[in-house]
Amino acid sequence: MVQHVSIWPVLVLAFIHFFGTRLRFWAGVPRSIWLSAAGGSSVAYVFLHLFPELSEGQEHIEQAFPGEGFLSHHVYIMALLGLTVFFGLERSVIDSKKENKEEEGVYVPSPGLFWLHIASFAVYNALIGYILFYREEGPLRKLILFTVAMALHFIVNDFGLMDHYRYRYRKYGRWLLVLALIGGWSVGYLIEVSHTIIVLVLSFIGGGVILNVLKEELPEERKSRYWAFALGVIAYAILLLSL
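Now predict its structure.
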């Protein structure tokens, strides 16, 4: 278990939830070039740093869960699951908005869906919080790269949730996400799980990152700038490959 633990990564990510959406230059349509660049950077981290690491961890998975066929690719199944879960949530939000628009004339999702959506992201944040604690065992470079990538990813998520829920997210949602993040990190003091579980959790997070970034870039009404997204990918990829 980790003996010397730094709290700064958790504070950085909590700061994003507290103050990220207050930075007005990130908001508006056309989509902020900074948001697109942040999304590109976090996706670059997943493909060039996280997935290669998970590929190495697949050996632990195969020893823990021996199997044939698709069961021998647990890492990629979990990444696919993460992508699928968050795609389902986003689809539910969009459908709920359309239904409320037709029935009540207001283009907002139902309150119940807000709590389901926030609960899902709270679990997601708790997993990331625990991974932050786990990352303390490795080189400082890994911890810094992971924290920066997640900070950029959190900014993208926060503006997406603000777009859906407005005051509900500002008043309730962000606080719950901060508590979940700190709670997940704190669990590291109490529970030590196997490397196999860590790899599976990282896989799920990787799939979630990819979906949550792309869903914010693709809608036509966002008028996102591809060049900014690509610049974020290239810049962070160069950084990752040079270290």
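Residues 8-242 form one domain.
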